[in-house]
Amino acid sequence: MKTPWDTDVLVVGSGPAGASAALLLATYGIRVRLITKYSALADTPRAHITNQRTMEVLRDMGVEERLMREATPWELMSDTTFCTSLAGEELGRVPSWGTDTRRHADYLLASPCSMVDAPQTITEPILVQEAQRRGARIRFDSEYLGHEQDAEGVTTRYLDRLTGTEHTIRSCYLIGADGARSKVAETLSLPFEGPGPVAGALGIIFEADLSRFVAHRPSVLYWMLQPGAEKEGVGLGVLRMVKPWHEWMLMWGYEVAAGPPELTEAFIRELAVKLVGTDDFEMRITSSAPWTVNHRYATTIAKGRVFCVGDAIHRHPPTNGLGSNTSIQDSYNLCWKLAHVIRGTAAPTLLDSYDAERAPIARQIVERANQSIADTGRILQALDLTDTADPAKLDERLAARKEPGPAGEKVRRALREAIAYKSYEFNAHGVEHNQRYTSTAVIQDGSEPEQFARDPELYAQPTTRPGAKLPHSWVTHRGRKVSTLDLGGRGEFSVFTGIGGTAWLDAAAALSTELNLNLRQISIGPGEEYEDPYGTWAELSEISDGGVLLVRPDLYIAYRRLTAPLSMDEARLLLSSSMKAVLG
Predict the structure, then answer these.
(1) Positions in the chain whose pLDDT score sits under 50
(2) 3-state secondary structure labels for all residues of 383-400
């Protein structure tokens, strides 16, 4: 059927947020075009830490295995190291990203997915190529100029940078995924909070074989306490592994007010020698550029038919590795809603829940990432330093940690505690998994406010409370293990119940026909299609065998009933009213 639009959804930007939006919409059968002002995809590694929640999203998209083949595996991400230089003294290590024996079980219990280190130069092409394969149309060298929206759609102007000509695209909806200098967000006049640019940093990519310094202590990040290292930037000097152990990113701060230094080859070599701790290595510089450490988030992230995702709405340093992860999860939250509205199976009011659910997350992750930079200052405090301007004093305080007696013991203890505190950056499992939603797309069940048994930033707490992510549990299908997360998603709602929940399954089948959508029916228990031989689902589900969970396409709980319905009619009434409330 001919529509009044050139495409259902236009996406501006090809980074992780835009590329994942294009892939999700194409997967859901929605016509989508993506434009980017650039002539190619990412040529620098930028974002890299890919956490479990994002891997779950990529798993649902069907690209998890391909990314794992190309990324650096979990076990090589292990020990974040603090030192004076790679060849110098170690101050301490933080077992990171759940690789610590004491924490690893928490991660394995929370998700069927592992973490990986996947630079943007790997992730972006995978997402864009797969989006194209599934029907998305991608246009490079096309610069967004502005848009106008009306009751029927959005008209977007863009510049063809090859020919210099202007064009328009008419779409039902527009997604602004055009990064931290987002023109879409600017055109929308989105309100932002936060101080904005708070520091300057240099990002230098180079190739060098440094395996003799690091292969025995594999990590993604090596933090250097050097004179001047704490000035702005990300708190200390950093060498980040891009590809083990021959491609690296060097990060070093500069004062925003003074502007970035001239990035000559000699200047970069001097910095690299300082952080490596010797000049006995060859290097090839592949790129260098200054960038800004931001502290800013949008308090409203959508207006009318236009939605912003990713760095366009949350601008923060790379600490905690939250950037691309949150960006992809923004798109995961939004795109199923757009798909249902465009198909006519949901009312446009469903889209209001995107702002209600993701704007609080934007603030949370911006505050967390900036707090992690501030927390790095504890290391200087442990050494009784306010700065590192005086190299002699720095050496003196570093030597103090080796002294016998109470004074030396005090320094050692303080330094251990300061470095261990960085777990709030490198093992913030709860920040990744404990995101809770409150909106019209979540039907609260009257439960008491959630109480966290452990630190909610460090530890994931699975729950089936409405507004929480469906817990992962290994169940079996014909004897083969499968995650509960694999039973839902793929753009569809699902109903989870067990023995005694037949009425819910029948109600879901009837409702699928009534609402013209596929409502998956899943029963878990002895003799059911899915069995629970480990008994973990019975515990994690927090409902009786005859209770029910209504799970959204993004694997979040929309509705929960703890007990079996009194009748078939009650099951139909409760499920129907819940679905209709969510869909608007």
Answers:
(1) none
(2) CCCCCCCCHHHHHHHHHH
